[in-house]
Structures are given as structure tokens and as C-alpha cells.
Amino acid sequence: xxxLEHTETFSQDIKKSRFIARAAPVASEDEAKAFLxxxxxxxxxxxxxxxxxxQAYRFSDDGxxxxxxxxxxxxxxxxxxxxxxxxxVTRFFGGILLGSGGLVRAYGGTAAMCLRAATKVEIIAxxxxxxxxxxxxxxVLKARLSALPDLIILGEEFTATxxxxxxxxxxxxxxxxxMLVSDVTxxxxxxxxADA
Length: 196
What we know:
Elements: E1 2-4, E2 8-14, E3 17-25, H1 29-39, E4 46-53, E5 56-60, H2 70-79, E6 85-92, H3 99-117, E7 120-122, E8 126-134, H4 135-146, E9 152-158, E10 162-170, H5 174-184, E11 191-193
Antiparallel strand pairs: 1-7, 2-3, 3-6, 4-5, 4-6, 8-10, 8-11, 9-10
Helix pairs in contact: 2-3, 4-5
């Protein structure tokens, strides 16, 4: 699964109607609703939208015939294996009716082209953990941890004898990271995972 790195915009004219798609990464339903509210253009004829965050999703046709706008936008999100994404397609009516099939193609196609143009990042399931290390182990430990792919040092708090490192690391590499910490410090430091 992937999400968007940042907000993306794409527009096109179809039979004199202007379609403008805006897509953004969102982490929750509340973020999706805030994005929709911020993007809503009251001067437009329709602001159709869809979002997906995990198993939760919603869509709206905003006055277009049922199933011709919101659902095709959601299908564009799902068709590109995206999660944590909200898309709004705004339509300024140009006077020519597109019919149901034309609306599905216009809304779904505009959303899909916007999403294709967006920079995507892989969603990595992470767990958080903590290491208490003495000063003598700290430099080599940080060097070895920095070599692990997708591991992030969230914080470093110094104590009288060393430091406490807060980490976020890929769930599937957590066991390997625990062994690395123990091996590098000869068992003096242990990576404690938040789930454990």
C-alpha cells in the first residue's frame, strides 16, 4: 500500500466543463473531513469527493446522479493501491450534459490522472521502542541502527550514565533490530518494543 507524499492538483476540460481534482494524504477521518471542507468551492456546480483511511471510506456525488462521481473517485484511489488519501473533484458546468457514462469517466478519470501524477510513498507498518544505553555503547549503537532500513530515531534523552533512545522501526524488522542491539552492546542494552 502507498499514500501520497504531498497534495497534488490536476485539471482538464471535458465538453466545456472544467474538472479540477485535488488529492491529499490524510491520517484520519477528521483530517479527511478538514481537507474536504478546505477544498470545497462554493462557486462550483459540484464538489464530489472520496476518501479512504484503512478500512474506513466515504464518498459523495454532491448532486450528480447517484454513483456517477463519488464511487468512481473511490475506485481511482483503490485502483492505485492507495490508503490514507482524500480526493475532491470540482466541476464547473459548461452547458453540455455528459450522461451517466460520461460523468463516471470524467470524475474517475480526472481523479485517476491526479493520483498518477502524485508522488507516492510506501506505507510501512511501524512499532515503537526504547533503548537505554551507556555512553560507551552509544556511538557504535547509533551508527549500527542508522544502517537499518526505515528505522527512525524519534528522540534522544541523556541520563547520568548514558541515553535513552526512542525509535520507530518497521514491524517486520523489529526482531532483527532487537538482536542487533543486544549483540552490539554485548547484552548491556536491550531494545524494548512498545507492544511487548
